[in-house]
Amino acid sequence: MFQGGQKKQPTTVTKASKNPQPAATPSPSPPPPSPKFSEVFAFSGLAPERINGRLAMVGFVAALAVELSKGQDVFAQISNGSGVPLFIGTSVLLSVASLVPLLKGVSVKSKSDGIMTSEAELINGWLAMLGLVALAFTEYVTGRTLV
User: Fold this and answer.
1) Are strands 11-13 and 6-7 parallel, antiparallel or unpaired?
2) CA 115, CA 63: separation in Å to the nearest integer?
3) Distance between CA 50 and CA 47 in Å, rounded?
4) How far is the C-alpha of 110 from the C-alpha of 79, rounded, in Å?
5) Which of 18, 56, 94, 139 can pair with 73 through a Cys bridge, CB separation 3.0 to 4.6 Å?
6) d(Cα 88, Cα 67) in Å, to the nearest integer?
7) Which of helix, strand or coil describes residue 3?
8) What is the largest CA-CA distance in the chain?
9) What is the residue-level pLDDT of the chain in tens, covering all 147 positions?
């Protein structure tokens, strides 16, 4: 298909004119624009609910794990301060990992499949938030660890 060092264009012949014409090549559609940082972090944006839910899920599991391993309630874990650097590091890591796809324009629903849907993640995040509050409230009222 090469003539004289150049690629030969495909041609089509119409009935009205017997002159060959180059075939039209479809142009690729441009990718959708990436959302702005302010749109992602808006009150109704994509990031706040997802990031808070993910952090709550990790926090709830971590709080229960520390209670089981060390026997400290949530308030003792917070006042102790030994887990603060780990908490901050985990928060930053999860926030950045959540933001990168959102800022690139990848929709959460496009990655949903089977039982791992975006709605299930939101519900799990809400339940983890409620679980943390209920855990702290129960330990405050009873004055001892839950587990």
Assistant:
1) unpaired
2) 26
3) 5
4) 41
5) 139
6) 20
7) strand
8) 93
9) 545 555 555 555 555 556 556 555 666 665 556 666 666 667 666 678 888 888 899 889 888 888 888 888 888 888 877 677 878 888 889 888 888 877 777 777 776 777 778 888 889 999 999 999 999 999 899 988 877
